[in-house]
Amino acid sequence: MNEPIRRLALRVLPAIAGIAVICMLFRGIDWHAVAAVVQGIGSGFAIIASIYLFGCIFDTLGWREVLQQTDRRIGFWRLLGIHIAGEAYYRFIPAGVVVGEGVKSILARKQFGIKYSHVVSSLLLRKLFMGIAQMLYVGGAVAVGLFTFSDGPAGLLVTAGGMLVVGLLLLFGFIGYGMWKGKLSTSLLSQLSKLPSYRLRQALEAHSQSFIETDALLVQALRRRKWTLVIGGAENIPIHINLAGEAA
Question: In whole angstroms, how far apart are CA 108 and each of 13, 51, 92, 185, 229?
């Protein structure tokens, strides 16, 4: 097989496989019932459908801000496509979060020529700031609940929310401290190296430098690009507002 045909096959065959999977996923749907529900919702359906799209846009903007620590030009639309591709794994397969993040790392490296250590550090920072945004969102809900509900089941829910906020504060404080000190990835490497798997330990040893580079990049980003990261984190807050609207 010559090179042009091979390249064409690598483009066409995955597309065919993807279309086949989509057909399998949607073949059991009662489209008449779907149409009836959409018709019942009316013009509000456009708002409901746009909620997830806006969440993806805000998430991509935050991720792009974090990725700007590299000297590569990060195109928004390509990064949005990578984000949506990773999100597809979240939605449709078990343990999709783990697989989706791996897909994002691979695609970002291929599209922008970024080293894995840069991509991984950006994803770690993104997750940290998404978690902080979630904590602020839940904290805001708890604050409103304190002035609105005082007893009964709603009061218990507010108390549980307050405990969750405290737990998230401790968790993200610990993770952020590890990033600031440049010990997060190497500490993870140290713990994984204790697992009773010789092949795993060999693989970790072979990639130990990447863990060290990731820690160095996290420290650099946190200490030199503070305001950029704050912007990236702030852009995650609308995601949770969108998710609340989606649930409603």
Answer: 21, 25, 21, 20, 19
